[in-house]
Write a structure and sequence with these properties.
Blueprint lengths: L2 E2 L2 H23 L3 H28 L6 H28 L8 H18 L9 E2 L1 H11 L6 E4 L7 E3 L7 E4 L2 H4 L2 H17 L1 H29 L5 H40 L3 H11 L7 E2 L1 H20 L3
Parallel strand pairs: 1-6, 3-5
Antiparallel strand pairs: 2-3, 4-5
Helix pairs in contact: 2-3, 3-4, 4-8, 7-9, 7-10, 8-9, 10-11
Length: 321
């Protein structure tokens, strides 16, 4: 359930954050060279790690009630964040050509994230999941494949269903979906999860996003180091390269959005090829993009979130009309 905060409180949080960053940076830069390097290598990474770990802990403690799991995830985030921030600050502080080797631990931390997400998302049938013979038969009659079963899981949340992992995967429909969807929309939901799994859309998108992010991060840091070590005459080549990289970084969300829409177009075409009920699919898309975000935000942010949901639904619907 979303919780609202006033714009005044949000503005005060932003002002306090920027003031802290400005004052802290000014104090570090005003120190002598030796003490500045000490702060850059010993203090700054710990501060950044503590802030990021605290943010993650604040988010996961609201969704994970098991104290042991919360502590475990927080410890993993702390270790990963410390390795990454320590390597970044060492690379920036030393800024020699040899320090480019510090990109290796940074990349390993970044690349470990999709692998860990994949590992944690290795979904399977749990005790309590109820096999649905009716839904399984309907799915088999539509797809012509009786190897994949349909189960109902007592769960609620933004997602209405998913698919298990492994070769003998199954479709999971969450119990909350039955209160939001009618019978025809449930059928479309099964087909969506079926073809989503068959086409491998979710994990391919995840790996592509992290791969692009790692490459761009490496390029930003590498061009910074080269710019610090190359003679001034060669800086004319570095600055345009950095501009191109930053343009690519800002363009990445739009590329991801276009790719996501394209991949859903393939799924929707598959769905309509076996079930031509276009209105039921449109209704499902609208309901999948109509849920309240978790966490705390201003009313303006909430309205922006709902507007993005509406736009995402409209883009996907346009591709099937």
């Amino acid at each position: 359930m979303v919780q609202f905060m006033s714009r005044k409180r949000y503005a005060l949080i932003l002002i306090a954050t920027f003031a802290f960053v400005f004052i802290f940076t000014f104090l570090v830069l005003s120190l002598p060279s030796y003490e500045r390097n000490f702060f850059s290598l010993a203090i700054v990474p710990l501060v950044l790690t503590a802030l990021s770990t605290g943010a993650v802990y604040s988010a996961i403690r609201k969704t994970i009630k098991d104290t042991h799991r919360t502590i475990k995830y927080t410890a993993i985030v702390f270790i990963f964040a410390l390795i990454m921030f320590e390597s970044i600050m060492a690379l920036i502080t030393i800024h020699s050509i040899a320090s480019i080797a510090l990109l290796v631990p940074i990349d390993l931390v970044l690349l470990s994230l999709p692998l860990y997400i994949t590992f944690r998302s290795s979904r399977g049938i749990r005790d309590g999941d109820e096999y649905s013979n009716e839904l399984s038969e309907r799915l088999a009659s539509l797809t012509g494949n009786s190897n994949h079963k349909v189960y109902i899981r007592n769960a609620a949340g933004p997602a209405l269903g998913t698919a298990t992992d492994g070769n003998d995967w199954s479709i999971l429909i969450f119990s909350s979906a039955f209160s939001r969807l009618n019978d025809e929309e449930i059928e479309m939901l099964m087909l969506e999860k079926y073809y989503n799994k068959e086409l491998g859309r979710s994990w391919n998108m995840l790996y592509a996003i992290f791969g692009a992010f790692v490459i761009l991060t490496d390029l930003v840091l590498a061009t910074y180091i080269l710019g610090m070590n190359l003679p001034p005459a060669d800086e004319a080549y570095i600055i345009p390269s950095q501009i191109v990289i930053f343009i690519a970084i800002f363009s990445l969300p739009f590329i991801i959005m276009r790719k996501s829409i394209s991949s859903y177009r393939d799924i929707d075409r598959k769905i309509l090829s076996v079930n031509g009920n276009r209105m039921a699919l449109i209704s499902l898309i609208e309901k999948e993009n109509d849920y309240d975000p978790p966490g705390t935000m201003t009313k303006y942010q909430y309205n922006r979130f709902k507007e993005r949901q509406r736009q995402n639904a409209e883009r996907r619907i346009r591709n099937i009309e």
